[in-house]
Amino acid sequence: MSIRQRLGMTLSEVEGSKVKRSILHDTGSRGFLNLPNHRDFKRSKVVVVPFGLEKSVTFGHGTSKGPAAIIAASHEVELYDEQFKNEPYKRYGIATLKPFPIPHSHRRALELLTDLTARLLRRKKFPIILGGEHSLTGGSVAGMAKVFGRRGFNILHFDAHTDLRPSFQGNKLSHASALHLAIPYFHRLVQIGIRNTSTEEQPIIRRLTKARRLQIFTAEDILRANNTAYLTKAMDFLRDRPVWLTFDVDVFDPAIIGSSTGTPEPGGLWWYGVLDALQAATKQLDIIGAEFVELLPKPGQQAPDFIVAKLIYQFLNFRFAA
Ligand SMILES: [Mn+2]
């Protein structure tokens, strides 16, 4: 059976009424937030897709275990939201796809994610893709382009790194090329929290900036200015199209994310700064899907896993419950 057929089976299992069991994970394990309706694909607006891609990792290893760690940690997240004074998930519903095999070939793995993302978007679902390494963006945004057309959408990107290298260590599908892979597809790109870029990316950054397709807000600028004024500028830039969110957890300061990411960088963003940005984005933009990548769970260090799980729930509540 081909991967596509197998994926189709996963989706139809989730959607079908005949299959009552083995929809998610193995028997006895549970989906994101451990919700009572985690198998209810039809009535859920949000569909969580575990996609632990790990092909081009260069420094820390283990991001293939990211989705399982996020889902496990999410079971500890309180469903009551302090800001909204209720359990917001009840208003939108979250289903979690059971893990499916990711093709060995990097390119085919990205094609699979393209297909899956496009299918979910066409069904008016809101995909939450759990990485996995950042090169999966090459797959997800191609899925966006299938639905909204090339240059038919914008990208909001949180990251310590610009990730615009044409290739890295000879690999065009590298995690360091995640956003380079997206250039043919997006109309505009905003990068927030940047503090590491390379010489070879500078001509690309200049070209995209000149074409009014790119704006970068560095972590240093954001933190030294100590205000959220940059958000108005960022959101204005992205307002003209539907938006895909790509969130690399290394945007957080290592005091928050520790070594639970492949390439930690000093001088990162803090919890409330990121929440402010996500709240502004969900208020002002038409965000239609998201991915959270580069969590590299470490045994005995639960805080980063929990922080990412809570971040995703907060983001969804901003997006759907506000
Ligand atoms: Mn990064």
Written description of the protein model:
It is a single chain. With 322 residues, this protein is of the alpha/beta class. The chain has a single domain, classed as Arginase, Chain A (3-Layer(aba) Sandwich). Helix content is 37%, strand content 13%. It is built from 11 helices and 8 strands. The chain has helices at residues 3-15, 66-74, 89-92, 106-122, 137-148, 202-210, 219-225, 230-238, 254-257, 271-284, 302-321; strands spanning 46-50, 94-96, 126-130, 154-158, 189-194, 214-218, 243-248, 287-293. An 8-stranded parallel beta sheet has the order 2-1-3-8-7-4-5-6, sandwiched between helices. Helix 6 links the parallel strand 5 (189-194) and strand 6 (214-218). It is globular, with a radius of gyration of 18 Å.
Quick synopsis:
The chain is an alpha/beta fold and 322 residues long. It has 11 helices and 8 strands.
Descriptive keywords:
binds manganese (II) ion; 322 residues; alpha/beta; eight-stranded parallel sheet; single chain
CATH-defined architecture: 3-Layer(aba) Sandwich
CATH class category: Alpha Beta
**CATH H-level homologous superfamily name:** Ureohydrolase domain
Biggest beta sheet summary: 8 strands, parallel
State the CATH topology: Arginase, Chain A
| Total tally of structural domains | 1
CA radius of gyration: 18 Å
Structural class: alpha/beta
Unreliable spans: 16-28
